[in-house]
Amino acid sequence: MVKVSPLSVDEQKGEQKLGFMTGEISVPDDFDSLGSTEILKLFEDKRS
Predict the structure, then answer these.
(1) In contact, 12 and 5? CB cutoff 8 Å
(2) Rounded to an integer, what distance in angstroms lies between the CA atom of residue 20 and that of residue 14?
(3) pLDDT given for residue 18 in this prediction
């Protein structure tokens, strides 16, 4: 079971975590298609 509750005021005052690595890494433009050829071959090889 999980209990969902709002953060207390003290917990909300902490450092903001979103975007803390801005400028530290880069994601290639073709990220969504990386390895797609190899993955497709893996599925095609499994056909009967």
Answers:
(1) no
(2) 13
(3) 76
Cα–Cα distance between 23 and 10 in angstroms, integer? 29
Give the pLDDT band (50/70/90) at residue 3.
very high
Q: What is the pLDDT of residue 14?
A: 60
Kindly state the tokens that stand for 40. 């497709």
Q: Distance between CA 40 and CA 38 in Å, rounded?
A: 5
Can you give the pTM of this predicted structure? 0.37
What's the 3-state SS for the chain? CCCCCCCCHHHHCCCCCCCCCCCCCCCCCCHHHCCHHHHHHHHHCCCC
